[in-house]
């Protein structure tokens, strides 16, 4: 492991996974690590460098995505032939978590998992059969570059009824995931834009913005959401927020902060807010939180969402609602783009929505996830005050605070060794943001079977050597 004796600076602004990624990449390029060499396992390298396995996962995943290394099931990671790469010094795409085939995961608390048992397969299959026919041979051709009008019309109607979003189908653009739409939005907003990003926040968007460190400013988050007063002290021109259910803390942006944020955007002509409403369908207490876009009076909010939580991550359909001035610019600059979502998938979803089955499915899943959350909170209450919950008002994940002498990294490592996947809050923090010493864990419950939730949580907390409160 001599060639991997890298010096990672834990106090540096650059995240550990990015430091490690750069170190390994440079070692491969300059030949220090030779073609065909096998890299250490994530567990061994994590122990060697005294970092979490999640840090190694991020770095290895990016190297795999760029073709510097390959992952072979049950064998490990191997350095690739650089001549096969089209461009070595290309800009790095976003970091992605890679499922490791060599690890046995028995319990997966990933926040991105959904309940697959309750999906309406029969209805979806029926519409797929109807779409795949010679009568629809036109769907083999490229459709509208923003996505077919019929689906955009359904989305426009749904957003107005459920989220109060005010838009026409012409303002909507479809894309194969948030990671495909965000670069378009960034290009549309121009090179002079300076982005405020929530800290902690969503790693994918963090990496997209932080590719140009001069134009990204982490803004801290508290129990009321992003701290707008700190945003106002910066020269940011665009603020990316998850106001309805902040990721990963679960905080809901307060009414006062919402007004402050919109007021900030109105103060200068070039300011915008990117509102990522990624899981707003699932709120369990009180009235639905209105979207920022719906209360925006000056066309300053770019609304972004996806069907990953409400239907399935593999559908790869996300959408953005652009203010009228920006959609005009988009049409002028990117009208030659082809839609990245297959037309047959678009029309299956269109039929699913216009028939009312989408609304029925949401109602059903809302009850299922609410029931799961009830079991989660009841089970964890048995360990209070050692283990406490926050961010439980909505969504499919919560934030655990663990009052223990163990660090977040130790809790994650203990869990991995037991075949349990969890994520530390530290993995979502950018730069030198002061993270509380008390460990916090992001715990997703959407993908755990209802009947297994209590036992799974008890197993996890037992691994941490925490006992129930007498």
What is the makeup of the main sheet?
8 strands, mixed
Low-confidence stretches: 86-101
Helix count from the secondary structure assignment: 15
Distance between the termini: 47 Å
Give the integer mean of the pLDDT values.
Answer: 87
Strand-pairing-aware structural class? alpha/beta
Helical coverage, percent range: 25-40%
The portion of residues forming beta strands comes to 5-15%
**Biggest sheet: strand arrangement:** 5-12-11-10-9-6-7-8
Task: Find the count of extended strands (DSSP E, 2+ residues).
Answer: 17
The rounded Rg comes to 23 Å
Summarize the structure in words.
This protein has 470 residues and is an alpha/beta fold. It has 15 helices and 17 strands. The chain has helices at residues 16-29, 42-49, 53-66, 121-131, 149-163, 178-189, 203-210, 228-231, 255-266, 292-295, 324-334, 343-354, 357-381, 408-417, 453-463; strands spanning 38-39, 69-72, 76-79, 107-108, 172-175, 195-199, 216-222, 225-226, 238-241, 272-276, 301-306, 318-321, 387-390, 397-402, 420-421, 423-424, 440-444. An eight-stranded mixed sheet has the order 5-12-11-10-9-6-7-8. A four-stranded antiparallel sheet has the order 13-14-17-16, covered by helices on one side. It is globular. Mean pLDDT is 87; it is low at 86-101.
């Amino acid at each position: 492991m001599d060639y991997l004796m890298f010096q990672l600076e834990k106090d540096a602004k650059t995240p550990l996974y990015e430091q490690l990624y750069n170190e390994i990449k440079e070692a491969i390029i300059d030949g220090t690590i030779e073609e065909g060499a096998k890299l250490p396992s994530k567990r061994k390298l994590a122990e060697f460098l005294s970092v979490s396995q999640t840090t190694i996962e991020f770095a290895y995943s990016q190297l795999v995505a760029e073709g510097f290394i390959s992952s072979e099931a049950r064998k490990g990671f191997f350095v690739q032939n650089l001549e096969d790469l089209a461009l070595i010094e290309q800009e790095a795409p976003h970091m992605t978590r890679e499922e490791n085939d060599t690890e046995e995961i028995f319990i997966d608390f990933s926040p991105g998992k959904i309940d697959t048992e309750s999906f309406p397969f029969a209805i979806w299959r029926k519409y797929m059969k109807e779409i795949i026919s010679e009568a629809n041979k036109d769907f083999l051709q490229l459709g509208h570059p923003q996505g077919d009008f019929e689906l955009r019309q359904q989305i426009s109607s749904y957003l107005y009824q459920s989220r109060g979003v005010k838009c026409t189908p012409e303002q909507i653009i479809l894309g194969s995931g948030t990671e495909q739409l965000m670069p378009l939005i960034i290009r549309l907003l121009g090179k002079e834009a300076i982005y405020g990003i929530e800290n902690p926040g969503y790693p994918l968007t963090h990496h997209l913005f932080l590719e140009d460190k001069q134009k990204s400013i982490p803004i801290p988050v508290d129990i009321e959401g992003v701290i707008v007063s700190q945003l106002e002290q910066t020269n940011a021109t665009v603020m990316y927020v998850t106001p309805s259910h902040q990721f990963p803390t679960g905080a809901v942006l307060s009414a006062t902060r919402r007004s402050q944020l919109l007021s900030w955007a109105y103060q200068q002509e070039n300011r915008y807010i990117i509102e990522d409403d990624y899981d707003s369908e699932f709120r369990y207490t009180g009235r639905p939180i209105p979207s920022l876009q719906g209360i925006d009076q000056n066309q300053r909010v770019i609304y972004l969402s996806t069907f990953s939580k409400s239907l399935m991550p593999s559908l790869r359909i996300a959408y953005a609602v652009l203010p009228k001035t920006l959609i005009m610019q988009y049409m002028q600059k990117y009208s030659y783009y082809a839609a990245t979502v297959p037309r047959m998938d678009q029309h299956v979803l269109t039929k699913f929505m216009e028939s009312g089955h989408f609304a029925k499915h949401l109602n059903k899943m809302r009850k299922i996830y609410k029931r799961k959350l009830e079991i989660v909170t009841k089970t964890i209450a048995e360990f209070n005050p050692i283990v406490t919950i926050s961010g439980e008002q909505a969504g499919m994940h919560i934030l655990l605070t663990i009052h223990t002498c163990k660090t977040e990294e130790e809790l994650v490592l203990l869990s991995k060794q037991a075949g349990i996947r969890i994520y530390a809050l530290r993995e979502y923090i950018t730069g030198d943001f002061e993270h509380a010493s008390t460990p916090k864990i992001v715990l997703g419950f959407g993908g755990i079977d209802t009947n297994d939730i209590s036992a799974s949580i008890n197993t996890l907390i037992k691994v941490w050597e925490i006992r129930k409160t007498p």
